[in-house]
Amino acid sequence: MGQLLVVQGTEIEAVQSLFQSALRCFESLHSLQPSAQSLCCTTATAKFPRLKAATAGIVRDPGVQAWLCAAGTYFYQDSSGEDALRGLAPRMHALRAELASGLADFNGIFALAGHDCRTGELRVITDRLGSLHIYTAVIDSNLVVCTSSLVLAALLRPAWDPISCREFLATGTVFGQRTLFQGIEKLPPATVFEFRRGHLSSRYSYWDPAAVMYDRSPSRGAVPQLADALEDVFRILARSFRKPVMDLTGGFDSRALLGAMLRSGGDFDTVVNGSDRDPDVVRSQQIARAVGVRHRHQLPSLHSGQDWWEKARASLALCDGEYDVLAYARICDVQNRLAADFDASINGSNGEICKGYWWELLFPFTGWRGHFDERRVAARRFAFMGEAPGLLAQHFTDDLTGHFCRLIRCANVGLEQHPNTAKLDNVYLRLRMQRWQGRIASATSRIWPCVSPFMFGRPMEIALSAAPHVRVRNRMARRLLEHLHPGLATIPLAEGYPAVPLRLTTAPRFWRQAWDTTRKIQHRIGIPFLGSGPEAPLGSPGHPAQDLWQLAEIRDLLNPAGMISRDLYDPAALRCLLESSRAGALPAPPQFGRILTLEMLARAIRMIC
């Protein structure tokens, strides 16, 4: 919960000086002061509060002269928050096997830091998917571990990482363990790091997704097991939060969670965000009426350029500049409004793992060993939007698809003998979920607790260990929904497609989905489809670029001659893209918000003395 900072070195005076500088950066950049601090030997730590919710501090064990703190939303067995930390604390500095046993029961998104004053050992532990982002840097020969890469950048004043900037401008996300800056590294998933006197002495993984894939797992995941595991999660959530609220849309994932919540005997509120005519909103209201849950519909509240700009400025400190501030602005607004009336947010993130997500790229060799085309995955799921030609000053020898091919190949090292479904699951978890979903979750966790039941260890392992024929084409998701609550399965999805499993008795309900699928296939291969009408007109952009340009502050920030980040770009390409967005091009260039984010980030760092 909240954020954390640890500084470790060899000389106490140097550690204290750097630690105080970091505290000043937190106050300047995040408007946060520590809620708890500790200085033990040459290791200093600080814990910072959330913006809209209480947070656990530093748990101390005077008997063994050790402390433990954490960031994120975490659960140990049946407890959460400070009780969870106290439960894990006796194992934090135990031998590897005992610590791994404790971490098997530690769930949620988290970064743990624990220090043993007797040995001087600092242990830092990341969650299974690396969703809670935590970073390291070496500054003046001292190790700094921090949940804020923005604070580390202000302390280190590093150079931009051109590869990360390329990824960010093209996709809105940074991948792997790099950050936007050289010398600042994101810690990888499911890893225990051991430091002494500011130096890494050991690192090892405590959880390996490959070991629970269906071809290696000692058991096969099935729908009844998954349903029971989700029910167990909701019982923990009911004990942990007084008034949680759960996302409810027209899709599979949130609806399955609703079914699990109802079966567990829970009594949670639900919420949907969007306009009155949004298909997700309409369908979620139908679902809520059908099962009789308290349901809130939140209409969009960002109506002007000034509204967007206020939330964008708040988003920079929440996202560390690693996520488009305009893309997060809407999320920031939604979460802050909910936090006024509830005490935790529950969502269906990672439910895609039950659906054979992205497996259509493997057809017709789904589940085979071999037949894994990295370039196809890279092109269709990472580089599909392309990049603005020549935007960056640095030139790259490979195209964007080739770059992501290498990332995918690197992520799958060690899985060469696994089926292609396992490789694609691993890419989804290690790349997309870790950095894209994880950056959103890390930002929201700074506001208040956010929980994804599908990311708890047991549900995730059951889904991953299910055979491909169980998960492919949403089969497991459909059967899970029907198993949890048959009534919910009878209500169509937001697109109008059926939510029930495909059987002879239900096949007539799938005619529309079959029709739409055929149209998509024929469109992709260039065959005209009789009876198809013209393409729907483009909708409005995701943010009002033209309204933002009316603000003097935006015009000042994005004046190429005065931009602090201008050396990143080719001057002519930058000017052309900004002029295009200012002229009202529809849709607005996606790079507009990302360029704005990098400039805001550069200025925030320069402001710090």
Q: Topology, pairings included?
A:
Blueprint: E1 3-8, H1 12-30, E2 36-40, E3 43-48, E4 59-61, E5 66-76, E6 79-80, H2 81-88, H3 96-103, E7 106-116, E8 121-126, E9 135-139, E10 142-146, H4 149-156, H5 162-171, E11 185-186, E12 191-196, E13 199-205, H6 223-240, E14 244-247, H7 253-264, E15 269-273, H8 279-291, E16 295-298, H9 305-319, H10 325-339, E17 344-346, H11 374-381, H12 400-411, H13 420-445, E18 450-451, H14 457-464, H15 468-471, H16 475-484, H17 486-489, H18 511-524, H19 545-549, H20 552-557, H21 571-582, H22 591-607
Parallel strand pairs: 14-15, 14-17, 15-16, 17-18
Antiparallel strand pairs: 1-3, 1-10, 2-3, 4-5, 5-6, 5-7, 7-8, 8-12, 9-10, 9-11, 12-13
Helix pairs in contact: 1-4, 4-22, 6-7, 6-14, 6-16, 7-16, 9-10, 9-13, 11-12
Your description of this structure?
- This protein is of the alpha+beta class and 609 residues long.
- It contains 22 helices and 18 strands.
- The strands form 3 sheets. Strands 4, 5, 6, 7, 8, 12 and 13 form a 7-stranded antiparallel β-sheet that branches. The chain has a 6-stranded antiparallel β-sheet with strand order 2-3-1-10-9-11, with helices on one face.
- Helix 7 links the parallel strand 14 (244-247) and strand 15.
- Mean pLDDT is 92; it is low at 524-541.
Provide keyphrases for this structure.
alpha+beta; seven-stranded antiparallel beta sheet; six-stranded antiparallel beta sheet; 22 helices; 18 strands; 15% strand
Nearest-integer average pLDDT: 92
Task: Describe the largest sheet.
Answer: 7 strands, antiparallel
Q: Helix count, per DSSP? A: 22
Helix content: 40-55%
Q: What portion of residues belong to β-strands?
A: 15-25%
Number of E strands = 18
Low-confidence stretches: 524-541
Characterize the overall form: globular
Structural class: alpha+beta
**Straight-line N-to-C gap:** 28 Å
CA gyration radius, whole angstroms? 24 Å
